[in-house]
Amino acid sequence: MLKVIDIHTYYGDSHVLQGVSLELDKGSVIGILGRNGMGKTTLISSIIGFTPPKQGKILLGGVDITHVAPHLRARMNLGLVPQGRRIFPSLSVMENLRVGIRKQSSGKWTEDRILSLLPRLKERGDHKGNELSGGEQQMLAIARALMTNPSVLLMDEPTEGLAPLLVADIGKIIGQLKDEGLSILLVEQNVPFALKMTDYVHVLSKGTIVHSSLPDELWDREDIKTQYLGL
User: Whole-number mean pLDDT of the chain?
Assistant: First the structure.
């Protein structure tokens, strides 16, 4: 579904991503782990098109999207749940959702179906974004991304700032999306959560992938956890 091939991304003269490659298959969840400032969000920005790489390629469904504009990538079924949620605080839950509607979209993620997956949002439908709890805001960010009917979903720190019970709720949602066949690239600081949710993980440090393995294999690598994840 998604293939990243040897990408190099810069912020000005700063060489942030230095030859990152990974592959995300249909219905799988791939985790990107690492300390703050190691390039995880830059990787998301490169894939969605906010900060295109200067070298390398990004393929979506076999199509080269390396130089495609972000809004066109969304039309090609690439969805984003951004770090910090970025919902519209002055809009209601339902208004936030309808911002994500794609014209002429015939995908399975209809408004009714999303609200059945996330019934709390239906209960809070008339409330403004700034009246929601942190967990409800995160659910709204996920729901808004689903309204674009993605086949690949990029999730940047979805559990950030959430209490453990709410983290568990987000985990259930990710599990349900995976069961629906959605491919997910998950950037996470919460290592135990990420290892529970993913099929495969990459550890990013200073713009390069320094470790790749099955989740259980990473959990057994005390050297990697200590040096690159701060555990």
Answer: 90
Distance CA 231, CA 225 (A): 5
Most confident of 1-10, 112-121, 135-144: 1-10
120-138 residue pLDDT tens: 888 888 888 888 888 888 8
Q: How many residues does the chain have?
A: 231
3-state secondary structure of 112: helix
Angle between helix 134-146 and helix 164-179 axes, rounded to 10 deg: 10
What is the domain range of residue 165?
Answer: 2-86+150-229
State the total domains in the chain: 1
Q: Contact, 176 vs 169, CB < 8 A?
A: no
Element (H, E) at 63: strand 63-64
Nearest to 166 by CA among 193, 145, 199: 193
Give the H or E element holding residue 105.
Answer: none
In a domain, 161, yes or no: yes
* Mean pLDDT across 6-11: 96
List the CATH number of the domain containing 9. 3.40.50.300
Asked whether the CA dihedral 83, 70, 37, 196 is positive or negative, the reply is positive
